[in-house]
Predict the structure.
Amino acid sequence: MANARESTTFEEEVEQEGGSNVEIGRLIPEFRLSTPEGQVIDPTNFKQKKNLVIYFFDVHNSESWETLAILRQRYHEFKNVNAEVLATSPGSMEELQDCVSSMDLPFPVLCDSNGEVTRTYSVTKPALFVTGMVS
């Protein structure tokens, strides 16, 4: 039975851990993640300054790439409404570096190498979170 935990799916893990930690009207869970360039991003740095669009994506999913391309094309629109886009993906920094360099994204792309932030947000497939400025 020791191997039972290893065979559970990510969706089952989220369910076992009590579901989502993100609720409408509540503060977003805090995290600190690095970009492939070595910059550390913490969403609390944007508190009272910007709205946030946080996109959780999978570098192996073609729909994720399409969404990243749309976010890149419309990035100026987010900036016009005082919003910053943060894209985050579980997996290796090397995979993320390949993605970032090939897409020339104007916003930070964050590596969730151990999947902790992805689990905290209860994300099991590509997902977009929009937050407002918090005082």
About this structure: Residues 29-131 form a domain with the Glutaredoxin fold (CATH 3.40.30.10).
